[in-house]
Please model this.
Amino acid sequence: MNVYEKLQKARVELQSASIKKSGQNTYSNYDYFELGDFLPMINTIFNELKLFSQISFNQELATLKITNTEKPEEVIEFTSPMADAQLKGCHPIQNLGAVQTYQRRYLYMAALEIVEHDILDSGHTQKEDKPKTIWRDKYIDKATEVGFEFDEIRLLAEKTGKKKFNDLPDNTFKKLFDRLNQGEEAVEKAKEFIKGAK
Model:
């Protein structure tokens, strides 16, 4: 068999194998294949068919070469563009390792035609974060509405060691907003909160 026939046979054999998805995306609620789910089986099949696989990386591309060891001049090549990973709390070398692991996974999936559901078509797109409430802006609007003096908030900034009221944490503006939203006694409650601040 030539390298194309061997690779096709490897695809069919892998397709017939019982491979289970161990990866879980709890955020979007779907399962996926991790590299370890199918690579051992691929290595076994390649060994039987006398195929050799080799992955290499450069700045632009990740490359998977599959060689027919009985006829080393017969080679099939798969490539994928390189991309960066920015994982929280990881060093650059860990991000590099993550990129290379993902590239290996995707290259083998392309070469062996391992199928997963289409994330985009199935609606498993990343959820958009809800807009964050900026309590400073809401406070300013409310203070203007009820006639609360801005000198009061400047006093609060001074008492808490801030140079200006914009330096106050947003949760402070939320507390003031809540007090200014309490009906007839709103302004007095806001003033009491400021007087008690340290």
